[in-house]
Amino acid sequence: MSGRDVLTEYRRKRDFGKTREPRGKRGTDSDSEPGFVVQIHDASTMHFDFRLEVDGVLKSWSIPKGPSGDPHDKRLAMPTEDHPLEYRDFEGTISEGEYGAGTVIIWDEGSYQNRSTDKHGHEIPFARALDAGHASFRLAGHKLHGDWALTRFREGSDGERQAWLLVRHGHTGSGGTPDPRRARSARSGRTLRQVAAEEESA
Ligand code: MN
């Protein structure tokens, strides 16, 4: 049984939009699929933080415009430092003066499957695919579903920051990114403004 399953009852009894109790660590069993989270972060500049669980940490990219469901949209994704797994549970306000000050909501969350293959169609371990600068994956979230790829297009040498693109694959439907100020948390249903207001009065 995965760590996710053993906490089902604990979570069912609690409304994590109302309590500050932790949801608890998810399992890291090798047979449970790795998780992802997309947070909206109303910092000095509004952005989306896209995080994929890889080898016990959350590999992270800051995406100014957020993911798009349209395969023609190539979304700039700037790598940021690895975050601890528990960060996927973070929704709240980072105080003025602190790093990343501003409000965060969990816009989407779920699990993903590695779909990265070499030219012979053999699966490449996800961490190695990222190192090589191209990783494919299938998301199973509340809002994001289907195939995506992250591709590095700037190596980040000579003091330049590394830069990647996040692109939807294999689907031509709709699914643009909603207005971040109207978007609601997949975890609590709240908007950025509601989270900020509740934290202020807490
Ligand atoms: Mn951020």
How do you describe this structure in short?
The protein has 202 residues and is mostly beta strands.
Note down, in words, how this protein is organized.
There is one protein chain. With 202 residues, this protein is mainly beta. It contains four helices and nine strands, in the order ααββββββαβββα. β5 (92-94) and β6 form a beta hairpin. Residues 1-5 have low confidence and may be disordered. Residues 41, 43, 47, 49, 62, 100 line the site of manganese (II) ion.
Describe the protein's topology.
Elements: H1 3-6, H2 8-12, E1 35-42, E2 46-54, E3 57-63, E4 75-84, E5 92-94, E6 102-114, H3 126-132, E7 134-141, E8 145-154, E9 163-169, H4 192-201
Which range does the strand content fall in?
35-45%
- DSSP, total strands: 9
Give the proportion of residues in helices.
10-25%
The description of the largest β-sheet is:
8 strands, antiparallel, barrel
Record keyword descriptors for this entry.
202 residues, 37% strand, disordered N terminus
